[in-house]
From TrEMBL:
Signal sequence, start to end: 1-22
Protein name: Porin
Coiled-coil ranges (or none): 26-60
InterPro entries: Porin_dom_sf, Porin_O/P
Source organism per UniProt: Shewanella colwelliana (Alteromonas colwelliana)
Keywords assigned by UniProt, alphabetized: Coiled coil, Signal
Length: 390
């Protein structure tokens, strides 16, 4: 019995000692687990902080990116060299002229509301006794009311002709802008007011505008009547409407009508003269071939204008061109206009230009053309130019 008791006591003692060891190991293991849990919690906290920082950085980058995309800067410019001989006067015009330097500034407030402006320096330098001018050519707010209706208010280009709204150098042939749109319409022409654009159907749009008008003197010169929104007389507003059709690929058809009840704006010593402008144009492009045609006519209802022969001022041109590839294109343009006496052949001017455009880049162009003027004028020569847009 003694032996059995001693053996049992030894076994109990052994298990007790093993249990004590196991208990110590368990405690050590628990401590290790607790330490690891603490480390994990610390890592989780740091990870959360890092994620917050990443989100904050992403927000800053997004805000910065949206700010950059919301405000845009662009521009265009053109340098001309003219070598023209006036055969009637026996004089030569040989001169360089940085004709235009223009900067665009735009900002998108929302997807539906935006601002656009255009600041221009003409003939390189302005000031007293200088040749050039600094002009604010556009500055307006535009808003999309819905997918069909867009409105704008401020100072904007009139919806007339081909080059008045799109006149960046890479967009047209010839060093100088065509004389019909320059002298008859007269491009570049901007006014202040409000306008609506209605997209009535795919490829069919209507424009309507109520704006400041022309302010002519006793010469009834349309181009000279542009006020350029500089303390512009507003005794009589101008009302303009245009329809444009572009549903057929490669084809653009447009017609504009404008009415102003008094071109003189109540000028003293000059009779009241209402005026109506009608103009239409067509552009058709098939592969590399394009043809443009435009007609414009002013009808001025006034005895003084009629006595001067300026009650009707008309002009038209046709311009076929062919672009061989991305770099080279050739054109010919015939212009005929009369802004002095509608029924007097002696004042009718005929001008022909033929030339080439070389696009170093789609937004950089070099130009050269030969010019021949006949009818009321007699001159010939050539023009060279370089232009860009960005």
């Amino acid at each position: 019995m003694m032996k059995k008791t001693l053996i049992a006591a030894a076994i109990v003692s052994l298990f007790a000692s093993q249990g004590a060891v196991a208990s110590e190991e368990t405690q050590e293991l628990r401590k290790v687990i607790e330490q690891q849990q603490k480390v994990l919690k610390d890592l989780e906290k740091r990870l959360e902080e890092t994620e917050k920082r990443v989100e904050q950085t992403a927000d800053v980058v997004e805000e910065s990116s949206s700010a950059k995309s919301a405000t845009t800067i662009g521009g265009y410019g053109e340098l001309h060299y003219n070598n023209i001989t006036d055969n009637k006067k026996g004089t030569d015009k040989k001169e360089f002229d940085f004709h235009r330097f223009v900067l665009f500034f735009g900002h998108e407030f929302t997807e539906n509301t935006r601002f656009f402006s255009e600041l221009e320096v003409e003939h390189s330098i302005s000031g007293d006794g200088q040749n050039g001018e600094v002009e604010l050519e556009q500055a307006y707010i535009e808003h999309d009311f819905n997918q069909m209706l867009t409105g704008k208010a401020g100072l904007f280009l009139m919806p007339v002709g081909i080059i008045n709204e799109t006149h960046e150098p890479p967009a047209f042939y010839g060093v100088e802008r065509n004389p019909v749109e320059k002298n008859i319409l007269p491009a570049t022409w901007w006014e202040a007011g409000a306008a609506l654009n209605v997209k009535a159907a795919p490829g069919l749009a209507f424009d309507g505008a109520i704006t400041s008008g022309l302010y002519v003197d006793e010469s009834y010169s349309i181009r000279g009547g542009r006020q350029k929104v500089s303390k512009a007389k507003a005794e009589d507003l101008a009302y303009t409407a245009r329809v444009k059709y572009t549903a057929v690929p490669g084809l653009e058809l447009a017609a504009t009508a404008q009415y102003q009840s008094d071109l003189t704006q109540g000028r003293e010593g000059v009779d009241t003269a209402s005026a109506t402008l009608l103009t239409a144009h067509a552009i058709y492009t098939i592969e590399g071939f394009t043809v443009k045609a435009l007609y414009a006519q002013w009808d001025i209802d006034g005895q003084e204008a009629k006595a001067l022969g300026r009650d009707e001022q008309t002009g038209w041109y046709i311009e076929p061109s062919y672009r061989f590839n991305e770099s080279f294109g050739v054109f010919a343009r015939y212009n005929e206009y009369d802004n002095n006496a509608g029924n007097n052949a002696d004042t009718n001017v005929e001008q022909t230009n033929v030339g080439i455009n070389y696009w170093l880049h789609e937004n950089v162009v070099f130009k050269a053309d030969y010019e021949k003027v006949g009818g009321a004028k007699d001159s010939d020569g050539f023009n060279l130019g370089v232009g860009y847009q960005f």
